[in-house]
Write a structure and sequence with these properties.
ATP binding; 20 helices; DNA damage; five-stranded mixed β-sheet; Ribosomal Protein S5, domain 2; DNA repair; Heat Shock Protein 90; alpha+beta; elongated; MutL/Mlh/Pms-like
Length: 608
Amino acid sequence: MPLVHLLDPHTVNQIAAGEVVERPASVVKELVENALDAGATRIEVELIASGKTLIRVSDNGIGMSLDDARQALERHATSKITSVDDLQAVRTLGFRGEALPSIASVSRLSISTASQDGLRSVLAVEGGEVRDPAGAAGPKGTEVRVEDLFYNTPARLKFLKSDTTELGQAMDHVSRYAIAYPQVAFTLTHNGQLAIRTSGSGEMLEAISDVWGREVARTLAEVRMEVAGLRLSGFVSPPHVTKPTRAYQYLFVNGRPVRTRTLTVAVDQAFRDLTPERRYPMLVLLIDVDPARIDVNVSPTKSEVKFQQEGAAFDAIRISLKSALMEHGMMPDAAGVAAANEALRQIRQSQTVEDWRTHREPTHALFGDLSLLAQSPLPGPDAEPRLEPAPSDPPPSTFPPPPLGAPPSNLPFLSLLDELRVIGQAMKTFIIAETRHGVVIIDQHVAHERIIYEYLCGLKGPTAIEKQRLLVPQTLHLDRRSAVLLREKVDELSAVGFELEPFGGESYVVRAVPAAIRNKDPLQILKDLVDELVETAVTRKLVPTREQIWIMSSCKMAVKAGDPLSIAEMEKLIADLATTENPYLCPHGRPITVTLGKDALLRMFKRT
């Protein structure tokens, strides 16, 4: 018997399905691409159980004859290319001819299609076996039904994520195509509920409004430029409208959604020094380039492209984004910067030293008699430390005070309070303090994050999270994808202090927020928290657990790097930190506290 033999076609198709059909969202992507290539102006996507039970994609494209439909179910059968030379000029989204046979090999698939109104041809495939054709009345176009995905490959079914994650992935694909093809009217329903609908008017800004919401669409600046043979068009958000993740950065090359490091870095370069660290602009950017200058045959999913001239693509994106921001007055030009600098110089010259002290930022830790008097050492852990902030200084945390009466064995890190004397705040980020053991440097953000996290997860005991009810309930407007995915996490958000309820469409009414953020914008914090939940569920393909929500929430509620703190606030923060389970690492694993011991300092300066 020969050792080498040919695999049967069904096995070959199932192997190919492992590359093309990774999850229900992969099926949605392939079928929507086929509909767009067929010239459809209306595409309907229906999902049941996030696509595990049913995926139905219907379009009004050119349709197929019975013979073409039969041929389309064969591996590597396509109408997009005829030879390898055509790969140099691919303008369609599909061209491999693998999608339909791969999907049919791992599901129960049926195709209903016609090239004109009247009688449709219906083909059913189960496990790769094509049944006898049938007829049915219907309009011109094609409808593909995919039922019981992975029913014959249970190992693949076992590795699917939660319904929330799978739905988020599918909505992400439909959202991208709905924005990139505004002339096509998209509809996506899940379990009978409308999730996405666009008008198909042809206006990209209107499509963005339908998918991301009107509030976001109003802030965007148009991008339109031709650089180095690349035509760029789309919209970008100003530096003050950002997201905590890249989930809202849509990049397309010749109409194809892509993810490449070159393009991502170019976007970051364009916004460097304009957006805060770890904040990302919202972006829809269509790049039109000669197909001969790119390679789209890189991966089976067709999500990557290679540019013949990577540097030119990089510069084109960076220049076009900066130009768009400047043109819309979102970036100052040279004249504006010069005028602002001159005005600032005149103001400073006209102020006396006393005026400057009066107008400088408050709570500076190194200057002023009041600050110096506040630096008297605190008593050691045996005595009751001075933890109450000054009457004029609000505490950084609104959670209950630490359990000072607990025995020292339950608080192994009270050495942080041993003769504590806060020296000041460096770069509005680090707290510098002196203890009997040396000099302590504390990152104020991650320290507060650790404190809040331990209250949220109950390490401080069953303490209820203090809520601040809003005098006037506020409305939280989200994009469709975020609103749908948030429905399953409302209880988790309520557990950390947010009281909200659906208010129709993509809106939620916020009636109460955690008291820890009473001095901040609660809607912005809630939006950032929702964005991270969506990013975790969709992009990282993880189900946000309760602990992850605690970690995200504590990060959003904590004081930030750059927030000025008074001496009393810094003392309170350190006192709370000393009673935590671990004052050296935040929930993300970043260091909180660095101690320079007395002996180490003396050795550094050669005093021993």
